Amino acid sequence: MRKIPYRAVLLTLAMLFSFSVFALPAEAAEEINYRLKWLLNTSVVGDIYADVQGVFAENGLKVTVKPGGPERDAIRELELGLAQFGVASADQVIRALSKGSPVVVIAQLFQVNPLQWIYRASAPPINTLSDLKTRRIGITYGGNDETIMRTLLAKGKIAEKDVRLFSVRYDYTPFYQKKVDIWPVYRNTQATILSRKLEKEGEAVQYFNPAEFGVHFVANSVVTSREMIEKRPETVKRFIQALLRGWKESLSPENEARALETLQQVDKDTPPDVLLEQLRITRQLIVPPAGTAIGAIDIAAWKQTEAIMIQQKQIPKPVRVETVLQSGFIPAD
Amino acid sequence: MLHRRIYQFLIIYFMALTLLLCIKYALGLSSYVIPGPYEIWSTFGNVLRRYMSDVMDTLSVAIIGQIVSVFLALTVGIIGRQTTWFGSFVKVAAYNIQAYPIVALAPIIFILLGDGFLSRLLIAAMICYFPLLLSIIGIMSEPVTDIEHFYRVTGRMRWQLEVKIRAFENLSKLTTVVAGSATLAMAGTIVSEFIAANAGIGYSIRIALYQSDLSKILIALFLIGITLSVYQGLLETTGSVVKRLWEIR
User: Which residue of A144, A164, A169 to mutate against B (max B Cβ within 10 Å)?
Assistant: First the structure.
């Protein structure tokens, strides 16, 4: 029987071990999955910028930015361990809390909700809520816009029979055909395309912004799990620092060309001039007033959002949303 | 036949539900990800009436869509069974139309027909029609040599008789195909409602998805499944009754 060459085997194993150790980088980047709320467009310019321009990498993170969509839900993915961070709207967060989800909000991206209504400038202006009376109003049944519009109607003491609600879809034809007077749009994305089409036909547009009538329904925010906050606070800190730096740089007027170039890499279907317009409107919706950092959490708006959802029986009882708003990770501006 | 379909569906549904609940409790997931039994039960009580009426609405459109597609598939199948140039032309046209994905065609349909009954009907019929056509062409192209030979040599064969012979000899297959296509008609109607209608269970599922309410979706799936099982069971029973009556004649 042949003798096993133990020394040679040991030497080979030792060599393999040392190669593998020295082959590793000094500090491997931490892998993170980040699930967005919607597809890659101007509404997520800061997220894309932080990824493409290597801001995440500079903070020792290897982040996979995953586009969202109607069938994606970042909060579910946090719980299932498929993502460590995500973007969710305030109503999603509040619904999840009411069902016991351990979700935590670590930054609020939109300071003004981009969900607004577009209408023709030739129509009478909406200066007060009672100006909504007799109009044909587009809403997405079950969507945020339905909640917001019902709140506005209640605030203006307008009964449903005094307006005509129209169920909207992705197709704008009823608005083009003037079957609907005011149509819900994302001010920084869809609205730019819609208004250009109408301008070509010689029609100017106006916007109805619920925030101007005292309804501050919070839009997209960055969320993570309670477990991440407790077990990996350093990762949360590095992530949010990198992400908000991405947002800040992408929305800085001096950096506009670079931000545009970054956007074009992922949104090839939108013409550059439209992207530029979208970027400028996004800046107005994201950048808070002077003295406040990007990502600041508007606690009063969150409380109002919760109150609206209770009022409309979308959640059975209060969830005390302010207890999960953690602005401690947001770096000072 | 009918009660077997129902209890088989119940077994499948409750097995799937149990699996979901096992995952929920094994992974410690909140009711936001997978709702608990109490939440599913209370949602059932809250939405049963509304969702049942939605399912019936969807089913009525699906049945009409299925009837349309059965007639269409029979017509095309009967013409396409011929080995003539026209027969092959009809087959090619029928196959090519099906190559377009319905999701891409849906916006055009909705622009032309609006988001009402006709659009739902057309989409249901389009989704249900092609598998039916394939089966019908398969059945109608296959000669029943033993019987057909007699009529051919005596010079009494007409195309109507040929179709009758082939349909009768393959009645069990045809019944299975028609019963199976009910699922497709229902799925087609739900897809159309999900994309752009203002009524039906597909529309309600869409709203439930907006509200991240899985318990409502589970109830909708239950009602769709049970209704479809009853409908398919009835189709199969009707098929066997027709066959028996035909055999007596």
Answer: A169
Q: What is the pLDDT of residues A242-276, one digit of tens each?
A: 999 999 999 999 999 999 999 999 988 899 999 99
Q: Is B112 on the interface with A (CB under 8 A)?
A: no
Given the cut 0.85, state whether the ipTM is greater than it: no
Q: CB contact, 8 Å: B32 with chain A?
A: yes
Q: Which residues of B touch A96 (CB under 8 A)?
A: 30, 32, 212
Rounded average pLDDT over A82-91:
95
Please report, for chain A, the start and end positions of each structural domain, with discontinuous segments joined by +: 30-112+218-329, 115-213
Handedness of CA B81, B85, B86, B92 (dihedral sign): positive
3-state SS class at A117: strand
Most A CBs within 10 Å: which of B30, B194, B216, as the mutation test of the A interface? Answer: B30
Instruction: Check residue A17 and give its pLDDT.
Output: 53
Contact A95/B at CB under 8 A: yes
Closest approach of A309 to chain B, Cα-based (Å)? 12
Q: Which CATH architecture has domain A115-213?
A: 3-Layer(aba) Sandwich (3.40)
A170: enclosing H helix or E strand: none
Across the interface, whether the CB atoms of A167 and B30 are under 8 A apart is answered no
Structure tokens at A229: 């906050």
Model confidence, pTM: 0.81
**A-B contacts (CB, under 8 Å):** 60
Q: Hey, what domains does chain B have and what are their CATH numbers?
A: 2-29+36-248 (1.10.3720.10)
**Topology given in CATH for the domain delimited by A30-112+218-329:** D-Maltodextrin-Binding Protein; domain 2 (3.40.190)
